[in-house]
Automatic annotation (TrEMBL):
KW Repeat (keyword) present: yes
Membrane is among the record's keywords: no
Chain sites annotated for binding methylcob(III)alamin: E522, G601, D602, V603, H604, D605, S649, T653, A708
Protein name: methionine synthase
Name of one Pfam family that matches: S-methyl_trans
Domain Hcy-binding: 1-141
E.C. number(s) listed in UniProt: 2.1.1.13
Species the sequence originates in: Pseudo-nitzschia granii
NCBIfam families: metH, PRK09490.1
Residues that hold Zn(2+) according to the record: C63, C126, C127
Single GO biological process annotation from the record: methylation
Gene3D superfamilies assigned: Cobalamin-binding domain, Cobalamin-dependent Methionine Synthase, domain 2, Dihydropteroate synthase-like, Homocysteine-binding-like domain, Methionine synthase domain, Vitamin B12-dependent methionine synthase, activation domain
Top-tier EC class: transferase
Cofactor list: Zn(2+); methylcob(III)alamin
């Protein structure tokens, strides 16, 4: 990130100064996605502003994006930079298989916009580019003129946080006449901030900083000066935390301290261009110049106090003299950029009653004007709160004094910067007339009685404050206005807002007003649900809200059902018909009928449940036939219910092959309904390439549905009478994807299996020996861990993904998602509901954890492709293998010299004492809770319980892996990591799950279940597709060697699959079926 770049350019500068060399400096940055920001969150312009002081010959962008995606960012950087500009784009974006598809001519064409517009001087290629690509780009570039250096114009102060901030005359006229520096993160400016710093409560202190930015501060002042505080440690910690908070770090910092080493402690952690407050001549000329030189090399702007060896300047003439002396020294001797100098001529307290203080305001205002004339491009600042210190405790009076003072200092004298409380800034015309008149006299020293007049106003204001306090009787209880509406309106409101508290009484009132119970459903209930559907479809309502609305709807319908059944029976009897001979499936009032199923062998259904609820909320009748549904059951129920759409869901990779089977059988049986594919393991590419060709249906396609939010649009489009264009567009898109996929296979090169084996990761087990012998070999049942034990290990990010709540940069992850303007409020409500249910589950013990760990001697097999596991050390010596774990190796060609990895590489060969671990864990009890909530028509709580069960078991896995490292195995007994570090995988070793990228074969789970006795020990079963039951389960292999790493096997060739099948003693066709998603060839 930029902090590293700043350290690098500082080091280069020091080296060049030391050696006397003059070598051009090029600086290149990477914008990681279409937000146009670096990995640490800076815009391109902010990145340039942060390193601009190093005077690079060339600055530019490289990697992460293809040329077409870099266009707006290169254009902006080209317009901003005062030096030459370069760009090295990728050959497009990575495709589904991890490669790059742009040909040399494509890449050259994408880069041409940079040349045509004269934005760059130097161009090249990054990921995916080859010599032919560079040749094509060179030929294209040769037709155009390079970027011309622009006239930089008047010097300007260019600060940066995550975003840049330019302060010059032009920008001032555009609406920034004054730079507000927020003062509330200053111990001298905020008692609350001081208390938080003394307690070490940095999290709450961050809230103060955020509030300052929200209230309009352009820069945040940070001051931790206090005799009882370790200033260096406090400054460093505050800045380190603040730079990770985008809402704070987006603005530049002012690092404020009386000790220079405290300033430097903060400066070295600040990735942007900050202001340092302050230095002065009171330390003497030599130290003053030394400090200024160091700050210049670090790229900071500086505040210079009007203070010299004789003391602080109070009079106008002294302020001017000291500032002019400092300016000449800085500009002429230190070579400090004049635009980065901010003078503080000392705002001193007025209204004290002492005659010599009366002119302090006027002295500052007049001195400001003169200093600006004598010191070109320098800025003027001041700590405004000092001015009214004598009136502390009376906010209205202090704000008024500040407003009048700033009116004169800014508009008449050109003051640029002020350290203020941004929240309490008062505009000049907002000051009460009577108070403003007295403020004018006081600030401009127009009347010797002004202080007395101000004291009188202060007394009145204090009296008013006390009166307001006495008259404050506390908050009044106000009846909710919507409860005063008629029943139909109340029901609509309850549905839209997900309020189930009054649903039965409101439904009953509405029923009594209607001729038939069905009218309540067709009227206010459907009216409300239609609004919900529209809001969700337009992105103005979020999934948790929709699920809550569904809960209200279901409870309302459940209340009405007995009345509707009674009415139906009475009508049948009146017609002389048998009331027990009733067609239960009256679907005439629905928009369509949808069958939903999780395919055979897969037990995961939370995503399917969410889609079912969303479709139900949009007036589709959903037949959810559950999990582990065989192909025969799906066909049978689709026919029985005469559905309009069939939806298949799955989480594990074997489900992909099962979906292909279902598609084939549906096609054979002549089903013409559209087939929807969804689930975590599915993708649009797999759907287009593997499933769609097996579903021969001219009328309806197979379509991949990314998430619940897309399901309604897809289904309504497919069931629309004018669907032809939509279907044709889908078919055309999938045809193109298939062509691209197979063309990509032809273009992508693979090593033979033998070649890949020769390029394996060769760990030196002599230099870095295997981990020590585990403290507890064999099988250990884990049944004493409580839910409360694992709560601190919960990673909440997947929880919000389950509910399809996605924050936007810079508030993507937990807990920053709560600050997102789009989803933050709903995310916080959802999280609070989750905490309530979590506490209830923990208290009632309605879910519980159980697991098993196995630690065994192990060695890589003789050929280095598998791992031989032994039950004891004696068995190892005797060569008695208890289990063989077969591994897969990468074969796709790499552009670098990286090895071709297999998990077998991480285990030492025969002759070394190495070991391997396994564990399987589960969260039990969720199924019973789900059944309870289903009986209560509470989809929201049902899905919440499933989501929490997933979080509990994942946290249990993290907790148990830590226990393995520290105790059961004990290879990292000195590890000292907090929960956040654990989630960032900062420990030694890995815990890959069988069936996932590092070993994408689920059949190895069966091997683990056998040697560790998982079902017998922990009660976790495997389905026929090797999905774990209960669904909230996690299993993993444990590798301890520090050189072990996570990776993806990717696609493999038939030569490896043949070898793999032989080593597993498995029929080749069966093996290919299990490995179907990763084959680089078509097994059909």
């Amino acid at each position: 990130d930029t902090l590293n770049a700043k350290a690098a350019v500082y080091a280069v500068g020091e080296y060049l100064e030391m050696t006397g060399l003059d070598i051009p400096l090029f600086v290149s940055g990477t914008l990681v996605d279409q937000s146009g920001r670096t990995l640490s969150g800076q815009t391109g312009e902010a990145f340039y502003a942060s390193i601009r002081h190093s005077k690079p010959m060339c600055v530019g962008l490289n990697c992460a994006l293809g040329a077409t995606h870099m266009v707006p960012f290169v254009e902006r950087l080209s317009k901003a930079a005062e030096c030459f500009v370069h760009v090295y784009s990728n050959a497009g974006l990575p495709n589904a298989m991890g490669g790059y598809d742009e040909s040399p001519s494509d890449m050259a064409a994408g880069n041409e916009v940079f040349f045509k517009n004269g934005w760059v001087n130097m161009v090249g290629g990054c990921c995916g580019s080859t010599p032919p690509h560079i040749k094509a780009i060179r030929e294209c570039a040769s037709k155009y003129q390079p970027h011309k250096l622009k006239d930089v114009g008047r010097p300007k102060m260019w600060l940066s946080g995550l975003e840049d901030l330019i302060v010059d005359d032009v920008h001032n006229h555009l609406g920034m006449p004054f730079l507000n520096v927020g003062e509330r993160c200053n111990i001298a400016g905020s008692i609350r901030f001081k208390k938080l710093m003394m307690k070490g409560d940095y999290a709450t202190a961050m809230d103060i900083a955020k509030k300052q930015v929200e209230d309009g501060a352009h820069v945040i002042d940070i001051n931790v000066d206090d005799g009882m505080l370790d200033g260096m440690a406090a400054m460093q910690k505050f800045v380190k935390i603040a730079v990770t908070e985008p809402e704070i770090a987006k603005v530049p910092f002012m690092l404020d301290a009386s000790k220079f080493d405290i300033v430097m402690a903060g400066l070295k952690w600040c990735q942007g261009k900050p202001i340092v407050n302050s230095i002065s001549l009171k330390v003497g000329e030599e130290l003053f110049k030394e400090q200024a030189t160091l700050l210049r090399k670090h790229g900071a702007a500086i505040v210079v106090m009007a203070f010299d060896e004789d003391g602080q300047a109070a009079s106008e003439s002294e302020k001017v003299r000291i500032c002019k002396r400092s300016y000449d020294m800085l500009v002429n001797e230190v070579r400090f950029p004049p635009e980065d100098i901010v003078f503080d001529p000392n705002v001193l307290t007025i209204g004290t009653g002492m005659e010599e203080h009366a002119d302090y305001g006027v002295a500052f205002i007049n001195a400001t004007k003169t200093i600006r004339e004598l010191c070109p491009f320098a800025k003027i600042s001041g700590g405004i709160s000092n001015l009214s210190f004598g009136f502390r405790g009376v906010t209205k009076i202090r704000e008024s004094i500040h407003s009048v003072f700033l009116h004169h200092a800014i508009l008449e004298s050109g003051m640029d910067v002020g350290i203020v409380n941004a929240h309490e800034m008062l505009a000049y015309n907002e000051v009460d007339t009577d108070i403003r008149e007295v403020c004018e006299k006081l600030v401009m020293n127009l009347d010797p009685e002004a202080t007395e007049e101000m004291l009188e106003l202060t007394k009145k204001e204090k009296a008013a404050i006390e009166a307001r306090k006495k008259g404050d009787t506390g908050p009044k209880v106000v009846q909710k206005s919507w409860r005063k509406e008629v029943p139909k309106k109340r029901l609509e409101h309850a549905l839209i807002n997900g309020i189930s508290q009054y649903v039965e009484e409101d439904v009953e009132e509405a029923r009594l007003e209607c001729a038939r119970p069905l009218e309540v459903i067709e009227g206010p209930l459907m009216d409300g649900m239609n609004v919900v559907g529209d809001l969700f479809g337009s992105g103005k309502m979020f999934l948790p809200q929709v699920i809550k609305s569904a809960r209200v709807m279901k409870k309302a319908v459940a209340y009405l059902l007995p009345f509707m059944d009674k009415e139906k029976r009475e009508n049948m009897i009146a017609k002389g018909l048998d009331p027990d001979d009733v067609d239960e499936d009256d679907d005439s009032n629905f928009a369509g009928k949808v069958l939903m199923a999780t395919v055979k062998g897969d037990v995961h259904d939370i995503g399917k449940n969410i889609v079912a609820v969303v479709l139900g909320c949009n007036n589709y009748k959903v037949y959810d036939i559950g999990v582990m549904c065989s192909c025969e059951k799906i066909l049978e129920k689709a026919k029985e219910y005469n559905v309009d759409v069939i939806g298949l869901s799955g989480l594990i990779t074997p489900s992909l092959d099962e979906m292909v089977t279902v598609a084939k059988e549906l096609s054979k049986a002549g089903f013409k309904q559209p087939l929807l594919i969804g689930g975590a393991t599915t993708s649009k590419m797999h759907t287009a390439v593997k499933i769609a060709p097996n579903f021969f249906n001219a009328e309806h396609p197979v379509i991949h549905v990314l998430d619940a939010s897309r399901s309604v649009t897809v289904v309504s489009s497919l069931l629309n009478q004018n669907k032809t264009d939509y279907v044709n567009d889908l078919e055309e898109e999938y045809d193109e994807m298939r062509e691209d996929y197979y063309a990509g296979l032809e273009d992508r090169n693979f090593l033979t299996f033998e070649e890949a084996k020769k390029e394996k990761k060769a760990i030196d087990f002599d230099a870095v020996p295997p981990a020590p012998v585990p403290n507890k070999l064999g099988i250990t049942v884990i049944d004493s861990v409580k839910l409360a034990d694992v709560v601190p290990y919960i990673d909440w990010n997947p929880f919000f993904q389950t509910w399809e709540l996605r924050g936007r940069y810079p508030n993507r992850g937990y807990p920053k998602i709560f600050d997102d303007k789009h989803v933050g409020s709903e995310a916080k409500k959802l999280f609070d509901d989750a905490q309530d249910m979590l506490k209830e589950i923990v208290a009632n013990k309605s879910m519980w954890l159980k697991g098993v760990v196995g630690l065994f001697p192990a060695n890589a097999s003789e050929d280095g492709e598998d791992v031989d596991v032994f039950e004891s050390e004696g068995d190892r010596e005797a060569g008695k293998i208890a289990a063989k774990f077969c591994m897969l190796r990468q074969q796709a060609e790499k552009e670098s010299d990286d090895p071709f990895l297999s998990q077998a590489d991480f285990i030492a060969p025969k002759g070394y004492t190495d070991h391997i671990g396994f564990f399987a864990v589960s969260c039990f009890g969720c199924d019973a809770l789900v059944q309870k909530y289903e009986a209560e028509n509470d989809d929201y709580s049902k899905i919440m319980a499933q989501a929490l069960a997933d979080r509990f078991v994942e946290a249990f896995a993290e907790y148990l892996h830590r226990e393995i490292r520290l105790d059961l195995w004990g290879y990292a007994k000195d590890e000292c990591l907090d929960e956040a570090d654990l989630l960032k995988i900062k420990y030694d070793g890995i815990r890959p799950a069988p069936g996932y990228p590092s070993q994408p074969d689920h059949t190895e789970k069966a091997t683990m279940w056998d040697i560790v006795k998982v079902q017998e020990s922990a009660g976790i079963e495997l389905s026929e597709s090797l999905s774990m039951m209960p669904a909230a389960s996690v299993s993993a292999l444990v590798f301890a060697h520090p050189d072990s790493e996570y990776f993806a096997v990717g696609q493999v060739g038939k030569d490896q699959v043949v070898s793999y099948a032989e080593r597993k003693k498995m029929d080749l066709e069966k093996c290919e079926r299990w490995l179907s998603p990763i084959l680089n060839y078509d097994r059909d």
